[in-house]
Each structure stands twice: as structure tokens, then as C-alpha cells.
Fold:
Amino acid sequence: MNDTYECDGCGACCRTKLVDVFEEDLLREPRIGPQMQPLREPGLDGEIGYLNCLTNGACPFLGSENHCGIYPTRPVVCVLFPAGSEECQEARQTFGLSRLEPIVKPQP
Structure:
């Protein structure tokens, strides 16, 4: 049985990840370009750069109340980041937050 999680918007992942940036991300959201660290050569699967959220303290697009300033056009790795994953839980732990609990589905 797979548990289902819903992001609670804590912003921990936006403070602890290296966000891979791909060309499609730049095409969708040009504001990423000036904020990313470019790679000298394309990386795995065409990665062209990254946003260093860990060293910089937070993603440059993380705004007040942990809201993403580019949410509709955020990088694909952010879109695909699974709430409740081990990486999510580790990020939460880094900031002293409790584990994200699975959504409890009502019994039929």
C-alpha cells in the first residue's frame, strides 16, 4: 500500500536542495537564467545549470510565507519533487519540523 502525502508548504525543500535546471525550464521561465549556476558542459539528461538553494540559504524565488515566486513556471524537478519522500522528510528534519504524515483516506 502506497501512502499519499500532500505538501504543507513548509519550504524546507526550497532551502536544502540543488535544483537542476534544464533548457526547457529556461524557456518556460527566463528569470531562472540569471539566478542559476551554469555548468561548463551539459550534465546528466541535458542539465545546463542549477539553483544552489543550500549554500544560498534558500531558492532565490522563495518568497514570504514559503510561497514560490515562480510556482506556475517552476523547474520541472520542483514540479516532480515528491511530498513525503525521504528527501522531503530529511529536509523537514533539518529545520526541526515533524515528519509529514500521510493523508488518511476515509474507509468506504
